[in-house]
């Protein structure tokens, strides 16, 4: 989960997400997953308002996919793992690791977008 968290923070930084907590600017490195995902989704909404272009569409598709994956990771596994709410057998753990690997590989595609 820490690997995915680093990826999520990198995505937020690439999008220049600005976060606040109680009306005070918050550095990305101190934000929780929910704030990061919300900030990323807000930036995606900003991208939707840009004039149409193939680069915009490519960026929207990629960022939307990554934001959705991050939200699923958070809801399906991150909260349960980090808060010791449940355990996973070895097959489940390997499956989770593969999904995180896919998330991180998808995130590397950001280097060429917007």
Structure description:
The chain is mostly helical. The chain has one domain. The protein contains four helices and two strands, in the order αββααα. It has a two-stranded antiparallel ribbon. A hairpin with a 2-residue loop joins β1 and β2. The longest helix has 29 residues. 23% of the residues are buried. The mean pLDDT is 86.
Secondary-structure blueprint:
Layout: H1 2-14, E1 19-21, E2 24-26, H2 33-48, H3 54-82, H4 90-108
Antiparallel strand pairs: 1-2
Task: Sum up the structure in keywords.
single chain, 114 residues, mainly alpha, two-stranded antiparallel sheet, 4 helices, 68% helix, 5% strand
Short description:
The chain is mainly alpha-helical. The protein has four helices and two strands; from the N terminus they run H-E-E-H-H-H.
**Total strand count, please?**
2
Put simply, the count of helices is 4
Which of globular, elongated, flat, extended, rod-shaped describes the shape?
globular
Q: What is the strand content? A: 5-15%
Unreliable runs, pLDDT <50, ≥5 residues?
A: none
The major beta sheet can be summarized as: 2 strands, antiparallel
* Helix and strand sequence: HEEHHH
